[in-house]
Amino acid sequence: MTDAILETTGLTKEFRGFVAVNDVNLSVRRGTIHGLIGPNGAGKTTCFNLLTKFLPPTRGTIRYDGRDITGMKPAEVARLGLVRSFQISAVFPHLSVLENVRVALQRQRGGSFDFWRSDTLLRGLDERARALLEDVGLSGYADLTAGELPYGRKRALELATTLALDPVMMLLDEPTAGMTHDDVGRIVSLIRRVAQGRTVLLVEHNLTVVSGLCDYITVLARGRVLAEGDYATVAANPDVIAAYLGTEETTEAAHG
């Protein structure tokens, strides 16, 4: 299907006179992987914070799955199936990898963290938790303390805890940042796999990742939409080239 699952109209955010996001009209099609890119200071993170309701817009509207979510709170939109990865990331470094996913599964049930519940009852979530770890390639790490995981594996665990909420749409903020080449390849494959039957919107600086992963791309510059289309279209756009030209970050990404 190609209908829009997430749309913004005139989305704007001002901070004491500085316009970080300026009249952005964004349309993300259901079942696609959509990239949000742009040079530093383009407004990508602010836009993500607006979409997931961690910031209120100055003006404009946000619609998710046909519903106006502009005035909703972060937890409310997460319950609707719009989930940003850090909302339920592995924040318990002293718990095991399995226990971190189990905690996330408790959230999926709609309650709080049920530390008071019996160990027997909590172990009833183990089968689903182990299946999620298998999905992200962490089945061999289940009993390891989360704080001991290498960085790339921690990001995989973050994806597992995101998947525990059974999201309809995932928003991923720089999922390959700080990773080795091998970890990048692993996470890209993982995102492609877990995106089956879901919609993904991601901010990503590595343009090699964007070119190989995203179906559609929106380029932001100075808070505005500069260009849209598939990778070939936006990469050939003179305005995009001018916005990126000479930035060390993009030069490295393009050759990485």
Features of the shown structure:
256 residues; alpha/beta; Rossmann fold; 2 domains; 6-stranded mixed beta sheet; 5-stranded antiparallel beta sheet; 11 helices; disordered C terminus
Architecture blueprint of SSEs:
Layout: E1 4-15, E2 18-24, E3 27-29, E4 33-37, H1 44-51, E5 59-64, E6 67-68, H2 74-79, E7 82-84, H3 97-108, H4 119-123, H5 126-135, H6 151-163, E8 169-173, H7 181-194, E9 199-203, H8 207-213, E10 216-221, E11 224-229, H9 231-235, H10 238-244, H11 248-255
Parallel strand pairs: 4-9, 4-10, 7-8, 8-9
Antiparallel strand pairs: 1-2, 1-3, 1-5, 5-6, 10-11
Helix pairs in contact: 3-5, 3-6, 6-7
Structure description:
The protein has 256 residues and is of the alpha/beta class. Helices cover 37% and strands 23% of the residues. The chain has 2 domains: 1-81 and 168-256, 3-Layer(aba) Sandwich (Rossmann fold), CATH 3.40.50; 94-166, no CATH class. It has a 6-stranded mixed beta sheet, sandwiched between helices. Strands 1, 2, 3, 5 and 6 form a 5-stranded antiparallel beta sheet that branches. α3 crosses α5 (126-135), α3 runs parallel beside α6 (151-163) and α6 (151-163) packs parallel to α7. Residues 248-256 have low confidence and may be disordered.
